[in-house]
Design goal:
Structural class: alpha/beta
Largest sheet: 4 strands, parallel
Helix content: 40-55%
Number of strands: 11
């Protein structure tokens, strides 16, 4: 084969090594070619601004996958990534050059032009200009990887904040608008219907099997590149630039850089680039013509650094244009010294055993035999993922797809997170974040995990503040979730996952300050000044307390006071109150002084008390539903605000405070309270069993007065009247007789059926309590009232009432609905019918909904289990039979 056929001119260079990005076969072939040619310099497709970062790749602290990040200095949100894995040909070439002391240069179009062109082109950049950003963009409708052209880079365009702005394959079209995938064209010419399978059979798998590895004693390491260059040349002759308007500009810059390198190092120069560009680099053009193409390009100031990357973000399903389907598998092919199938299935067996699957070495042996047999039958040089997946499903998974899904997530794709050295260029905010992460022992990880925090511990408190500050800055490293272990306010649960694009968010947040604390403080003050709604300011105050931002609170408090004084909408006030009250309570566990917030919250609550009754008059159905939500939110806020407040006594683990916890005492209204409006129905009051407790009890009493006024005023929609009655009942301000009286009035014949159905929905609907069905199960008098009212609804109104009732009762649990149906079927019990005699034996009396009496023989059979659960001493079976009555009574009392 002549020198020209290998991609190098007769003088011995340059050596044009066309590759497909992120391919282990291409990476291994590049290393073999470099060993054979020993070039004086290595040129790599990538942003030239990164030349000064190349030495960092040789440090011990650099562990791929990593990415080059370039962003506009004045607008970090406009950024682009160039990801590299250990099996990327560019990374292998870079490491080889560093190990051999050979200079490395990046030769692609500078990021200063790429980002400027993206901003200038606007919408056009999202289609025709995507190749500068994503490089190996997909070239077919199914998102196949056309990695023979373009840099391995993906851009964060405009204000994308780390996410791509183009759809896969939008720009990979020929001049007629048809996408051109060079790998697909070559695969079809070879008789394959799957381009990925053809590429793996020809390049990736053949390069990973023992004797077929490149670099053997008799192998010509340049031969594969010559064959690929010839194929790409034929494609370029047919399709030209395939409709990629910016390819000529990029290739002109590459030719100029190659010309400069040849003048400096001679012809012994190796170029590692996408195979699609090799024909253009071999084309003979003048320097003047190339410079003419580059003249007048827009330019911006950029900054470049290394950032960690993940296998998940290398995957095609993440939306990355140069994505591959199986980064974990490709990494295994590249790193396995021999017998990749056996080693892979050993990894699979280890993973399944960790997940408690019964997998043995015999399974591995049989799976290897099956995979290799399938590869032979299908004519493949090496068992691929298709054969391996079939073997695992048949041998290790017993035909189930569950192991395959686990293997795909954990091994085929993987959750590997790269690392970069500490001395890599970074904005001050990034360095402060890294210091905080080390101090708090909170290491970023690609694998999603949950973190339980105990805010009473100093380290956990610091972690909570850091995560809340990052959330305020728009860096969502962690997402708060509901804690499973405790309902106390001293617990927090976070779901953490570090995404590579968060590096862009950190750089973008650097405009607010040089540390996480100062940046979050400045951002909070700015948001407080610009907030338009009262609820936004109260939510911001809550976040400031969570994040521990004492310097931002005065600004937020001034904004809160100003907007609270000007906002007269009761709905806005009620919407803002819960977040403000939660902020007041945070002082108990976080050591913050929330006294000023408490005064504002009390004032806000009083304004809600005054304005709520008039605001509830004359509402339609939608307005009543919206006001019901405000009613529930205010009730929770008052219950929380009225709890004894002590900043020095945090909630204990055994006594967590909850907004839904009913008060232990109630206070009757004072004599100075005005009586309900004329024509209203007064709600019976429950006598107070404990003396009032100062301001806290007074707040509860004033709220109870508001609820009583709502529950008895006819002009208030039935939905709100029923909800107010239910809240009074739950809060101990209304007894069962009073609730029965209010229900009787609401369901009287003079009340419109739709209004009565609304009352039932408010009283028995899920709302905040969610136990309306259980209330009917245990109080047959209320159930009998509803049954009697429903049977008397006229036929003409029944169709209007039915949807309201159906919406109410479908919210109940199936068991509750079944019990209610059984109670209705059996009719009212003797107690509700007025025929009950004196109860001489409570155990033998009929239990509502559960039959006429207790079957003691059946009850005795479950006594051992009940004793075990309740901690009551065990006895012999004979003793249980003889003492059934006493045992049943004891257990009934224990459970009650």
């Amino acid at each position: 084969m002549s020198t020209h056929d290998t991609g190098a001119p007769p003088g011995g260079g340059p050596f044009l090594l066309g590759v497909r990005h992120h391919g282990p076969g291409s990476a291994r072939a590049v290393r073999a070619a470099l060993e054979q040619c020993a070039p004086a310099a290595v040129l790599i497709e990538g942003p030239p601004e990164a030349d000064g970062l190349v030495p960092l790749a040789a440090q011990d602290g650099m562990r791929p996958p990593v990415a080059l990040l370039a962003h506009v200095q004045d607008d970090p949100g406009r950024a682009a990534f160039w990801p590299l894995a250990e099996f990327s040909p560019e990374w292998v070439a870079m490491r080889w050059a560093l190990e051999h002391g050979v200079p490395v240069r990046f030769i692609d179009l500078p990021a200063a032009h790429t980002l400027a062109m993206t901003d200038k082109a606007g919408g056009e950049s999202e289609q025709d200009g995507e190749d500068e950003r994503h490089g190996e963009r997909e070239r077919d409708g199914e998102g196949e990887r056309g990695g023979d052209r373009g840099p391995a880079g993906e851009e964060v365009a405009g204000r994308g904040r780390g996410q791509e702005q183009t759809q896969p394959g939008e720009a990979d079209r020929d001049e007629d608008g048809v996408r051109v995938d060079p790998i697909r064209v070559l695969a079809e010419a070879a008789g394959y219907d799957d381009p990925e399978r053809w590429w793996e059979d020809v390049v990736e798998h053949r390069a990973g099997t023992g004797a077929a590895r490149p670099g053997g004693p008799d192998a010509d390491a340049l031969a594969p590149f010559a064959a690929l260059a010839e194929a790409m040349g034929a494609l370029r002759e047919t399709y030209g630039d395939a409709g990629h308007d910016r390819d000529p500009v990029r290739e002109a810059h590459m030719r100029l850089q190659l010309h400069t390198a040849r003048r400096e190092f001679g012809d012994a120069v190796a170029v590692v680039c996408g195979a699609w560009h090799v024909p253009a680099l071999r084309r003979r053009t003048t320097v003047t013509a190339d410079r003419r193409l580059l003249k007048g390009l827009p330019k911006v100031k950029t900054a470049v650094t290394w950032v960690p990357w993940t296998h998940r973000r290398l995957a095609r399903r993440s939306g990355y244009g140069a994505g591959i389907a199986s980064p974990g598998w490709y990494g295994h092919l590249f790193s396995a010294p021999d017998r990749p199938v056996e080693r892979w299935l050993t990894k699979v067996a280890g993973l399944l055993r960790e997940e408690d699957y019964a997998v043995s070495s015999a399974h591995v042996i049989e799976a290897v035999r099956l995979a290799e047999g399938l590869a032979t039958v299908r004519g493949r040089p090496l068992a691929g993922l298709t054969e391996l997946d079939d073997a695992v499903r048949a041998v290790m998974g017993d035909g189930s797809d569950a192991p395959s899904a686990l293997i795909h997530d954990r091994l085929v794709v993987g959750e590997v997170l790269g690392e970069v050295p500490e001395d890599a260029p970074a904005v001050p905010l990034q360095r402060d974040l890294a210091r905080s992460q080390r101090t708090l022992r909170l290491k970023p990880e690609a694998l999603e995990r949950e973190l339980e925090l105990d805010l009473r511990k100093a380290t956990d408190g610091g972690r909570s503040r850091l995560l809340h500050r990052l959330g305020l800055l728009g860096i969502p490293w962690g997402e708060p979730v509901r804690s499973r272990g405790s309902a106390g306010t001293f617990r927090e649960t976070w779901r953490l996952r570090w995404e590579p694009e968060l590096a862009v968010r950190v750089a973008e947040a650097g405009i607010w300050g040089t540390t996480v604390l100062t940046a979050a403080t400045a951002k909070a003050a700015s948001e407080a000044s610009g907030a338009a709604a009262l609820a936004e300011v109260t939510a911001l105050a809550e976040r400031c307390l969570l994040a521990g931002l004492p310097d931002a609170l005065p600004v937020v408090m001034r904004a809160l006071s100003d907007r609270a004084a000007l906002d007269a909408d009761v709905g806005h006030l009620a919407q803002a109150l819960p977040a403000l009250v939660r902020s007041v309570r945070y002082g108990d566990v976080r050591g913050t002084d929330a006294g000023a917030l408490r005064e504002v919250a009390l004032g806000l609550a009083e304004r809600v008390f005054v304005g709520l009754p008039p605001a509830c008059l004359g509402l339609d159905a939608d307005g009543a539903a919206e006001m019901r939500a405000h009613l529930d939110a205010t009730h929770h806020a008052v219950a929380l605000l009225a709890q004894p407040h002590s900043a020095s006594e945090p909630h204990s683990a055994s006594e967590p405070h909850s907004a839904s916890e009913p008060p232990s005492a109630s206070e009757p209204p004072s004599a100075s309270e005005p009586s309900p409006a004329p024509g209203s129905r007064s709600a019976p009051e429950r006598p107070s069993s404990e003396p009032p407790r100062g301001a806290d009890a007074g707040l509860r009493a004033r709220w109870a007065k508001v609820l009583r006024a709502l529950s008895g005023r006819e002009a208030v929609p039935g939905l709100l009247r029923g909800r107010a009655a239910r809240l009074l009942l739950d809060d101990g301000q209304l007894d069962a007789d009073g609730a029965e009286q209010l229900m009787g009035l609401a369901l009287s014949p003079g009340t419109a059926p739709t209004d009565a159905a609304g009352w039932i929905e408010g009283f028995l609907g899920s709302g905040s309590g969610g136990d309306g069905g259980m209330l009917l199960v245990h109080d047959e008098r209320l159930l009998a009232l509803i049954d009697h009212w429903l049977t008397g609804v006229p036929d003409t109104a029944f169709t209007d009432v039915l949807p309201l009732l159906r919406r109410t009762f479908t919210e109940y649990e199936p068991g509750v609905r079944r019990t209610l149906g059984e109670l209705i079927r059996r009719g009212p019990s003797a107690a509700t019918s007025g025929h009950a005699g004196p109860a001489t034996d409570a155990v033998t009396a009929a239990a509502p909904g559960f039959g006429p009496g207790l079957d003691r023989d059946r009850a005795a059979a479950v006594l051992p289990t009940l004793r075990l659960l309740l901690g009551i001493g065990q006895h012999g079976f004979d003793e249980e039979r003889s003492g059934t009555n006493n045992a049943v009574n004891d257990l009934t009392g224990a459970m009650s």
